[in-house]
Structures are given as C-alpha cells and as structure tokens.
Amino acid sequence: MPSAGRTGVGTNQEDVRRHNLGTVLGHVHRAGRISRAELTARMGLNRSTIAGLVTELESLGLTEQVKPSGTRISAGRPSVDVRTRAGAYVLATDVRVDGLTVARVGIGGAVEARATGPIPSSHDPEAIGDSVVELMRLVVKDVKADAALVGIGVSVPGIIRAEDGLVRFAPNLGWHDVPFAQILADRITTPGRPVLGNDADLGALAEHLRGAGVGVDDLIYLSGEVGVGAGVIVGGRPLEGSGGYAGEIGHLPFTPDGKLCHCGSRGCWETEIGAPAIALAVGCPPDRVAALDEFLNGVSEASPDLRTVGRNLGRGLAAAVNLLNPRVIVLGGYLRALYPLVSEDVDAGLGAHALTAPRELVKVSVPGLGGDSVLLGAAELAFGALLRDPVACLATACHDVESVLAS
Amino acid sequence: MPSAGRTGVGTNQEDVRRHNLGTVLGHVHRAGRISRAELTARMGLNRSTIAGLVTELESLGLTEQVKPSGTRISAGRPSVDVRTRAGAYVLATDVRVDGLTVARVGIGGAVEARATGPIPSSHDPEAIGDSVVELMRLVVKDVKADAALVGIGVSVPGIIRAEDGLVRFAPNLGWHDVPFAQILADRITTPGRPVLGNDADLGALAEHLRGAGVGVDDLIYLSGEVGVGAGVIVGGRPLEGSGGYAGEIGHLPFTPDGKLCHCGSRGCWETEIGAPAIALAVGCPPDRVAALDEFLNGVSEASPDLRTVGRNLGRGLAAAVNLLNPRVIVLGGYLRALYPLVSEDVDAGLGAHALTAPRELVKVSVPGLGGDSVLLGAAELAFGALLRDPVACLATACHDVESVLAS
C-alpha cells in the first residue's frame, strides 16, 4: 500500500535522546522490572547507549539497577535488572455514576494509596470537583518527601474533547459541555493540567498494557456501568473515529421496534443488556441498580430471564466480532460480575451469530485488572507526559502536593 | 499515552533516500501533477533535496518536469510542476461473481486500457486464471515499448491471506483455500508475484486515495455484490483485525430470528439488504440478479418494499456509525445504483438509530470513482512495490510483457 505522505527523516539528536529516554522508562514502567539485555533487544540500540540512558533515569530518581533475581546461568557477562523507584507518581481519578475513586499510583503502575467516596447526588461538576480534591488529600498524606507528582488523570463516563478536557456529553451524569479539566485545574495548582479520558477507552488502555490484553493489538473493552460503552484498540492503536465518538456500542440497533432507549432511539443493544434490564432480570431493587455488580455477586444461579440477557450479550458481541475481528473482548463494570453467571449463554449467542473465522480467534474475558481497569487507565493517561519526555516533565513536577491541594 | 515500544532511531542513509524517493513518487502519483514547492512543503525536506529526488525520478522515466500551467504570480522564483510519465504501469484485475475486468493502469492512476469478460460459470480457479490472462493480453497490445510492468494487483470477493495471496474463503465463488496468487504466477512469469486484496478493502483504499474519501481518515466502503462487505479505514490506516477478517458487516445481527443467511446464522443484515432481498423487492428475475445494478438503473421509482430495504440499509449503517464514527460512508457495487432511489429512507433509518454527534459528522456518498473503485484499488495495491522503492522495483520490472503473457 502506498505510504500516506510520511515526511522526510531528519531529527534533532537531543529530541532523539529524550524520546529514547522516555521509551526506556516506558519499558521499565510497564514491566516493573526488566533486564538491561532485554531493553537492548527491545530498543534496537547498543549496550552502551542503553547503559547511558539507564544511568540518566537513575539520576532522575525514576529507576534503580539491581542484581538479577534468578539464578539462570547464561553465556557472557550477566545483565543487570532495572526496576522503577518510588520517585514519581500520579493521581488517578475514576468518576462513576455510583461513586468516586482516587488513587495514588507510582511509576511502575502499583496503587500506593486509594480512597473512595460517594458522588454528590446533584452530579454538580463543581461539587464533584470538591469531592475529588478531598479524596486526593487522603491519598497523598503519607507520600515520600522526594517523590514528584507528575500528572493527574481522570476517567469520566462520557465523550471527552481530548485537547482541553471538555466533557462534551456524559448522559448518566447529565453533563453537556462541562469543562471538568478546568474545574479541577481551578482547585489544584500543579503546572500540568489534569488529563481526561473516556472510561471505556481507559479500561481498554489499561487492559492492553497490563491486563487481559497484554501483547494483543486488537482488543475491545466493554464498560458496563449504567449503559454500555466500548474502548477499542485496533492494530495496537486506540480507535477514535472522526470526532472522537467511536465505541458507542451500547447503541447498536439490536431489536427492531424494541424498547425506548435514553438516547431517543428504540431497540438499542443497551436496552437489553444495560443495568436496568439486568436489574429487572435478577430482581435487583431500583435503589441498588447503581451497585449492580455487588448485587450480581450475590446471585448464585442465572434465572431464565438472566440467561436471555446473556444470550443477547453474546449476539451483540457477534456484531463487534464480525466487524472488528478482535483477539480479546474484556467485559468490564457490572458485565464482569454478570459473565460468570451466564458465560454459556454468551458463548451460545456469540456462536450463533459470529462468523466461524473471527469467532475462532476471539477470547471473551473478565478484566485482568479486576475492578481497577478504568482507574489504572486514568493513571496511564497521567503518566503520558513523563513517558514522552522525563526530563521536561520532572522539571515542572510538583514536590509539595499537600500545599497544592490545600483548601 | 505511553509509546508502544518504538525502537531507537538510527537509519541507513541510502534507505532513507530510497524511502524519500518513493514518497515523492507517491505524492506525484496521487496528485497526477504537483509543484516542486508543494512537494517541499509536504515532505518537510529542503528544496535542493527535493530537486535531486525529482531529477532521479525523471532519470528513471517515471516523472517529468513542466512549466506550471496557471498564470498565478507569486513572490520568489517560480516553482516547477512535476507530473507522471507513462514509463510504468500495472495490471489490475477485478474478479467478480458476475464477470472479470482487467485494466492497464499507468503511474498517476489513469486507466490506459480495459477489457471485460465473463467469469467461467464453474468458478474453477484455474479456468478463471486462464481467462484473466487472456484479458491481460488484450490490454497490453498497444503498450509503449519503453514502459515497464511494475506489478499485478487482483481483487477477489473473499478473505485473503496477505503474505502469499491465498484466498481463505470466497463464499460467492465457492472457494476455500485457493492459492490464486500462485495460479496467476504459474501463468505470468514476471519477477514479482501478483498481489491479492479483498474487494471491499480495495474499494476503500481507492476511494480514500482518489475518490469520495480524499483527505478523510475515517471511511467505510460498502461493497454490495451478492452479499455486503466493508472496507474500513480508521485513523488513516486499513482496519484489518487480528486475523485479517475485519469488515464482515453483512453479518451484523440485525433481525432476531430473521431469515436464514448463507453463513448459517439467521437474521444477518445481508438477508435484508443483500442482492436477493433487493431483487425480490424490485421484481428482478433470478437470472438477472448478478447484474442487479443494471436492473436498478432501469427502476424510476422505489416501491414500498424497496423503501423498506432503504430503511434497513440506514438502520444497519447506524451500527457502523455508532461504533466507528466514520466521516464518509461510500456505497459501492449495487448499493451505488440503489442509493439514489431510496436515499430518503436510508437517511431516515440512519437518523432514527445513530447518535446525534456521530450522525452529524458522517456523509453517505456514492463512490467518487463510479464503478471503478475496486479495480483502481487493485491497481494501487500493485503500485505498492514501486512506491516503496522505485529503484529496486524498476530493476526487476518487466519490459516485454507480451512474451510474459504468451500462452
């Protein structure tokens, strides 16, 4: 296929070095611990260049070198392992209809502290901003003095304009064009503005990097919250669509002249597998629908109505399988609690409607990161600036977070 | 987002030069004629480098420099236009259920000669290979003595294994695992093996490069032949899926417990908008279904049944719009003839089921390349080797095509 206008090669040496520094850090960040020999192989650079980059990351307080843990004997000089050090962290926030979660996540991806709280019932963005900052104060209390806050990442169940973090539309919060990144920036005086992402997109990102989709270039993450959205990775890259609206899988036309959907249409897939439909099928009272996953965890056997939901889940997945040919489909949110109850019915619905060739390739899975996919995706989003250019990011990072979050 | 393991930068100068040479040629090939100033701007290289590359392409017989055609006055030295020369061509083949088309397509993308013929009714691959070669002989009769055959591209309505041109499955030809690239290679002794592609993927490619999707990074091309397939471009790149099976949009689950589909499932979208369904709705006799587009061209007004097909077409498109958020949907094959008859119904079906935000961004269109999208996509596929490395490709190109095609 013809090249699509790639520009000529000609790069500044310092830019290349910073790019490579960030790439090395990215490998260590995702692996947690990795040998220098493996870094050399993955980067396609020579040993001395890698050694120099690793030394620079060490001097920045981001990584450290340790003796390899195993006792394997191999030819030549033994390699050295590189692992992350607790010198940098991000604050990740998951804004859900049923609550708020904030975590402090260290370089390397481990959750160092976590706090959860209710979401203000008004769903007022300013009030939610206040609550998020209160939770942030809780998770930074015991942060090490020499650790730097390098980013803030936030998941919102809605459509986000990436460049400025405007929430274009979040139906289940009742938000239209809410400048939520700015609302947070007004409360947290870090140099870098908080970065926002869509919940399903972030779930897909985290599962791709650290969960059920590691090494998988074609993956769909379904976020079952109130409705159903999808984060899609194709050919190793996020599927965005021409306006950033891709992944609205809950609104697949599913049942002709079916139930009215909150989007205004009839018969969307979501009317058959959304939280209200499942609640009805399992007898979950209306006031507990927001915590449907907990209710489902208490169900021991699927009723015929719930099995119908499972079959409809599989039939809709077949649409995605035939169109996108993914390798893995991760069922997140309440679908994670639903799947074990109705996996046979999901498989039956999928088998009846997916073509054989893509059906044979796809694996339906619960998240590898449990209930943390979206939260950890928000953390990865926040680490983006550090991994693009560690030197520049650390130069403006925040070392006195408690004062920054002072009310 | 973290970088996905890009290796360190460090490239051979000669590789870079050849890459840039191919990229310049690609710009001229797609534009037909382009100023050197514009090439300089698009490539991000300096004027003297561009001048050197253009001179090399000229010495290879691929392009020539001419005075600009316009009378615009601009500051500084006037630029020079570069246009393609008839020094290289490909042979493009479109294998359809209703016939065969072969074209000689010159660098620059113009069809220089074309021949069509029936497809052997047995659909026997060897017999089809013979017919293709006979058509090729017709289109090369008046080829210029100094022109080089640089590639052979073939469209097949099926799933292709890219690396060796094995047709995994072409339901409407009854093919399973047919080595059609090898069958052609056995008959045409050019150095390069024929390159095969899926019809819808090639339609999408050509419409993206030269048709209704120029400058559009998110595009869907629907090939209405007997069934309906999709070629999808997302973020400027073809959507392939984990096994190359993506785009099977005809098998979207559409009508619960609907009509039996040839794939073995029930209620696929294709059972409502495929050629047999349309033929039934317009009273097209069974022996003319293969040329349904011609029949539709003779229909002046849509019957209520045909309008239902149009509405179902729109409802299915809504699934693609909500999931993929394309900028353009191109209706190819018989859908091109159908659309003008039922465009209001298509719009109504789409409007009732697509979300507002992606609906506002998408344009439904007939092909910019008329009935030639797939054929020209096969030509683009064939030009791939030349555009990747003009020097290496021309070194092995064929200058005596008539002997190569001798029986």
Automatic annotation (TrEMBL), chains A, B:
Entry keyword tRNA processing: no
Family: Belongs to the ROK (NagC/XylR) family.
Sample GO molecular function, one term: kinase activity
Protein name from the UniProt record: NBD/HSP70 family sugar kinase
UniProt xrefs under InterPro entries: ATPase_NBD, ROK, WH-like_DNA-bd_sf, WH_DNA-bd_sf
Keywords, sorted A to Z: Kinase, Transferase
Organism: Aeromicrobium panaciterrae
PANTHER family reported for this sequence: BIFUNCTIONAL UDP-N-ACETYLGLUCOSAMINE 2-EPIMERASE_N-ACETYLMANNOSAMINE KINASE, ROK (REPRESSOR, ORF, KINASE) FAMILY
Pfam families linked to this entry: ROK
